[in-house]
């Protein structure tokens, strides 16, 4: 069953910002934003900006509980949801036609709208294991990759294979896998999640751990093979770290159905991107929801014309015409 959380506002009572967008030809009276399950960052962040947009533009809109990035690509592509949120990996797979929800369907009608935040990939082992680098991971190591079907479970095993690591794949909740590592049932845990990962922070309190960074060569190899960007886990993230740890991260982007009116999407982007402090009040992850991060799309998703217009005019974005939908 779909669960939709709506915020309603009348046009007459809409704030002044709505008056800046007088051309409302073709605008919908309501909209939904595909998020993920309740209790996660996607749901809180997505419902928050949906409600903000609804209030500012005098529309009815809200966040919808979904299965996450892959399903959001499908919902937005078909128009069942006006907006959604996805990570670059699922976005690329969906455009290539390998989204497991609809194999063979190239979901090219979901367009980039604005950058959200990063999901870093991090590796942890017990200090007693002697594993201090990726190359130290022994053959047949038992590695926990997080919940089955998650972004972590989808991409981290492939990354390890790319780096030549031989392993046994294990799945589970983050806290459960952290406990298994401490009990010696796992050799390594490899999570794609916001840092600090609570399970790793808890481990630090109870035992000595190694936060394992990638070498420059390993980092580049992963970036060449997957839709990820360079990322540093800062030294103040974990008490174990004495200096920044080299890693990679996968960007999350808000997406829009490509057929939505240019002026509508432009107005939505303006609401979200023009006041970062307001977004930070919705969720701390929004500290990366900044205009200069427009380039983190890296050509994976076609840009919605309304969004491209906003970033070109307000962020000096250099978006090639062939990366803008309809051009």
TrEMBL record:
<dbReference type="Pfam" id="PF16868">
    <property type="entry name" value="NMT1_3"/>
</dbReference>
<keyword id="KW-0732">Signal</keyword>
<dbReference type="InterPro" id="IPR011852">
    <property type="entry name" value="TRAP_TAXI"/>
</dbReference>
<feature type="signal peptide">
    <location>
        <begin position="1"/>
        <end position="18"/>
    </location>
</feature>
<protein>
    <submittedName>
        <fullName>TAXI family TRAP transporter solute-binding subunit</fullName>
    </submittedName>
</protein>
């Amino acid at each position: 069953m779909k669960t939709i959380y709506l915020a309603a506002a009348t046009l007459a009572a809409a704030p002044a910002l709505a008056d800046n967008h007088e051309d409302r030809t073709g605008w919908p009276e309501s909209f939904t934003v595909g998020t993920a399950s309740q209790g996660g960052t996607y749901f809180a962040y997505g419902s928050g900006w949906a409600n903000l947009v609804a209030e500012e533009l005098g529309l009815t809109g809200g966040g919808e509980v979904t299965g996450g990035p892959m399903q959001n690509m499908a919902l937005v592509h078909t128009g069942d949801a006006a907006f959604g949120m996805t990570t670059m990996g699922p976005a690329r797979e969906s455009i290539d036609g390998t989204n497991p929800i609809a194999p063979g369907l190239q979901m090219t009608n979901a367009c980039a709208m604005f950058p959200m935040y990063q999901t870093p990939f991090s590796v942890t082992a017990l200090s007693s294991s002697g594993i201090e680098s990726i190359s130290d991971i022994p053959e047949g190591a038992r590695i926990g990759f997080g919940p089955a079907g998650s972004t972590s479970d989808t991409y981290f095993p492939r990354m390890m294979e790319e780096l030549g690591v031989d392993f046994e794949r294990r799945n589970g909740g983050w806290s459960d896998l952290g406990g298994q590592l401490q009990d010696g049932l796992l050799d390594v845990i490899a999570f794609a999640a916001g840092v600090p990962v609570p399970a790793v922070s808890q481990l630090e309190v109870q035992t000595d751990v190694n936060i394992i960074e990638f070498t420059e060569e390993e980092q580049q190899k992963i970036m060449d093979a997957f839709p990820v960007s360079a990322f540093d886990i800062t030294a103040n993230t974990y008490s174990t770290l004495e200096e920044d740890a080299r890693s990679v991260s996968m960007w999350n982007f808000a997406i829009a159905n490509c057929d939505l009116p240019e002026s509508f999407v432009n107005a939505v982007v303006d609401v979200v991107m023009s006041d970062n402090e307001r977004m930070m009040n919705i969720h701390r992850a929004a500290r990366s929801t900044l205009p200069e991060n427009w380039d983190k799309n890296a050509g994976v998703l076609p840009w919605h014309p309304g969004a491209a217009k906003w970033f070109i005019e307000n962020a000096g974005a250099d978006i090639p015409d062939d990366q803008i939908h309809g051009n």
